[in-house]
User: What shape does this take?
Amino acid sequence: EPEVTQTPSHQVTQMGQEVILRCVPISNHLYFYWYRQILGQKVEFLVSFYNNEISEKSEIFDDQFSVERPDGSNFTLKIRSTKLEDSAMYFCASSVSGLSTQYFGPGTRLTVL
Amino acid sequence: GQQVMQIPQYQHVQEGEDFTTYCNSSTTLSNIQWYKQRPGGHPVFLIQLVKSGEVKKQKRLTFQFGEAKKNSSLHITATQTTDVGTYFCAGLIGNQFYFGTGTSLTVIP
Assistant: This one.
């Protein structure tokens, strides 16, 4: 069964550094998402992406964040200057259409020191 | 801001007992999805409800969408240890899914 994959599984970085989290969505899916989950808390929507542009973003997704689909398979989330409060699990998800089942990847645990 | 609330936050049940989690929104939802997240895992889609008053069943799981499309529930009959995890609802408002706060289920053998 096709899966969403994410790399790395765990990223440790110093405050102020840039990080790029990578995702490979399911190949025939057209909608891509990033979510984050602070330890023990709920899943929070960051951004959705369709047709090579952001279709929706939350208040969390400020100027420090950006997304890109640099080629036909990868979908990346960049955090330009990490803060301590960015420490969380970041999940990528993809779906066939905007209102259908979202398939989540295994997540990248980001630790900002 | 938009919020989707879930109760209870935690639930401990004896194996074989029933379990229900409730999801409430102050805003009408276009649809609602339910996910299960095992400890240390990622959210896994369970089901999507779209119509007012809709009820769907998956084996021991029963999902319901309220008539006003502002609330939903997930009921598990005769829980098993494999049901352990956190159950999240996610309501669609506009073009964004808002996840509920989750209900963490512990099943005591």
About this structure: Chain A has a mean pLDDT of 93. Chain A touches chain B through 22 residues (CB under 8 Å). The first strand of chain A starts at residue 5 and ends at 7. Chain A has no helices and eleven strands.
